[in-house]
Amino acid sequence: MTMSETRPPRVMGPGHDTFWDHCNKGELQLQRCQDCGHRPWPVVEICEECGSEKLAFEPVSGRGKLASWCSFHQPYYGEAMPAPYDTIVVELEEGPYFVSNPHGFANADATGGMAVKVAFIACKDENGAYNLPVFERA
Ligand SMILES: [Zn+2]
Question: CB atoms < 10 A from the CB of 138, how many?
């Protein structure tokens, strides 16, 4: 039996809902500006580079490099995210930096520039069950 991990509430709403819908299908899709090609992340309503409102979700490869990592020892989210827990920053192939959690490795084993790829784990929050994108060794 696979247990869902309980997590702090996600940000929901326009754009965010679309992002999570793709995750629930096992796809990592991020916005791309249809005017200048910029890939904003997190979700925005207008392009940070050119001000365009023509933003569309497009698949990304899910591959990237480990850019940074840290472990939190303060339980900021109470029982929804007990401390300590590991957090990583992945530089995606397409450019954006993506904050996530390591999967199948611990921060103690992390090295800068390590190749990683996205995986999805079953989670739930007050909005229901969903797939959370995490990263494992590529
Ligand atoms: Zn743009």
Answer: 13
Q: Which two tokens stand for residue 82?
A: 């007990």
Ligand 1 centroid to 58 CA: how many Å?
A: 14
61: left (phi over 0), alpha (psi -120 to 50) or beta: alpha
**Tokens representing residue 126 in the block:** 């007050």
- Could you tell me the sign of the dihedral formed by the alpha carbons of 13, 42, 63, 104, in that order? negative
Ligand 1 centre to CA of 57 (Å) is 13
- Global confidence as pTM: 0.92
Q: Which of 58, 61, 68, 77 is nearest to 118 (CA)?
A: 61
Ligand 1 centre to CA of 39 (Å) is 8
Residue 1 — very low, low, confident or very high, per pLDDT cuts 50/70/90? Answer: very low
